[in-house]
């Protein structure tokens, strides 16, 4: 796994894209958005990182409540609840792994197989925070299923389904099996960063049960043009 570029962490300037995208879905219980890459889900610790998706959603939809998060560099489907009952219902779906998440990732190189599962424990790398690492002693069970969507010698497209929700799980698992995500400044080598405009990780699909009646709803965010 590549060493983190510590200089990047020290010099990073938060400059999120402006505006709030139109909701992918809106009803009495939930809101869904396609979060752009580069925008925090919740406020950062520093005042200059106060702008975030949660703040923008609440300004447009008073009373909206956070349910889950996406990393700043990751784009795609994210949901908010519109009342406390719905927040509890949706939150339990993530906690109990009822929610079904599918991501797209453009990775360096091409896997030998067409599909597979990564089952490796993940722990915080306290000496290099906020990084995570594979650790058989202190890591928490972490499992990711993957399949090839588009195979290319230089950069393949993969669909990922995480069965657990560890911090940086997809990024760590793919880097560990030799398929680092393009644009990943934490875990990918230098050749995976050249000419790449962003982290090539996108939350493409999210299936949930509606709080009102338990029926399934499938939310989709289109593949970003940058993934081409």
From TrEMBL:
Record flagged with keyword Cell division: no
Parts of the chain that traverse the membrane: none
Function field: Dual specificity enzyme that catalyzes the synthesis of pseudouridine from uracil-746 in 23S ribosomal RNA and from uracil-32 in the anticodon stem and loop of transfer RNAs.
Domain of life the protein comes from: Bacteria
Family the entry assigns: Belongs to the pseudouridine synthase RluA family.
Entry keyword rRNA processing: yes
Protein's UniProt name: Dual-specificity RNA pseudouridine synthase RluA
Pfam family, one: PseudoU_synth_2
Keywords: Isomerase, rRNA processing, tRNA processing
PANTHER family in alphabetical order: DUAL-SPECIFICITY RNA PSEUDOURIDINE SYNTHASE RLUA, MITOCHONDRIAL RNA PSEUDOURIDINE SYNTHASE
Gene3D superfamilies cross-referenced by the UniProt entry: Pseudouridine synthase
Domain Pseudouridine synthase RsuA/RluA-like: 29-175
Organism annotation: Rubrimonas cliftonensis
């Amino acid at each position: 796994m590549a060493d983190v570029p510590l200089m990047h962490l020290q010099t990073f300037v938060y400059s999120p894209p402006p505006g709030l995208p139109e909701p992918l879905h809106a009803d009495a219980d939930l809101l869904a958005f396609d979060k752009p890459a580069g925008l925090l889900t919740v406020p950062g610790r520093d005042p200059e990182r106060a702008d975030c998706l949660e703040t923008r959603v609440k300004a447009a939809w008073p009373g909206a409540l956070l349910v889950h998060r996406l990393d700043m560099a990751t784009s795609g489907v994210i949901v908010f609840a519109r009342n406390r009952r719905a927040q509890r219902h949706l939150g339990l779906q993530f906690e109990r792994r009822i929610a079904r998440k599918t991501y797209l990732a453009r990775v360096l190189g091409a896997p030998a197989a067409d599909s597979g599962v990564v089952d490796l424990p993940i722990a915080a790398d306290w000496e290099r925070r906020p990084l995570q690492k594979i650790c058989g002693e202190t890591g928490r069970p972490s499992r990711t299923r993957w399949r090839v969507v588009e195979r290319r010698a230089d950069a393949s497209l993969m669909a990922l389904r995480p069965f657990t929700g560890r911090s940086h799980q997809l990024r760590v698992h793919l880097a560990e099996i030799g398929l680092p995500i393009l644009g990943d400044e934490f875990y990918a080598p230098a050749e995976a960063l050249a000419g790449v405009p962003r982290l090539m990780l996108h939350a493409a699909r999210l299936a949930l049960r509606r709080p009102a009646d338990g029926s399934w709803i499938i939310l989709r965010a289109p593949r970003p043009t940058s993934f081409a």
